[in-house]
What does this fold into?
Amino acid sequence: MTGMITTKPTCPLPGPAPDLSVTALFLDFDGTITDLVPDPAKVRVPGNVHEDLRALIAAGFPVAIITGRALGAIDSFLPGLQPAGAGCHGAELRETAGAAITHMVPSPPEKLVAMATKAALEFGCFFEHKPFALALHGITPHNSGQVAERLSELTAADAGNGDYVVKKIGPSYEIIHKNVSKGLAIGHFMQLPAFAKRVPIYIGDDVGEEPSMDTVGAWGGRQIGVTAPTIVPGDPRHNDPRYLLDGPADLHAFLAWVVQSIT
It folds into this structure.
């Protein structure tokens, strides 16, 4: 009887395939796992991606979601998984799948929430009140500078107690605590037993936007960008050579390869 010949799956990333035996994987959510949509509540996670993430968690592979969303929102889009991750740009941490969520900073003060809500109404933006961050979506190129200036005024005033900063995240602006960032969150994970002594790979559509993400390189890892519709000519990310994936579908293919390779 002739033995079956199995074909080793091919890594869809350009260049040498990562050594998964020493890799830790960190994934952004919006624009990476899911497509970007105008209403954040209406994103959808394809069923095959949900199952691939489930398989990685079940296999004990070190994977974490690093997102600006609250982890509770992530759980609603990935039912039954409760993956390890950092929410609200690192204000929330779940160190292992299914574990309790740790809050790293207090929630924004009500006065700051009220003033940000008023600013959103003034500029016709969609206001998102997260547990540990505030976001304004639907900002146009016409009013982007004005929105940034107004939010900076709010955080500089007593409303924020000097503890909050404004960050441009893609086409949106967010008010987050000054002591949290995605980079700090990844650094925290890299000291946990499941992630320690591994090489981090961060995949997201915000590569190059967040200086704190340079911590990935400090751990010997790499950042891989996912091209999004918001990355247009003139955007500093447009010609960034780290943008190797053309969209979430490419990330989905990579996750499928990881699952096939370790199971």
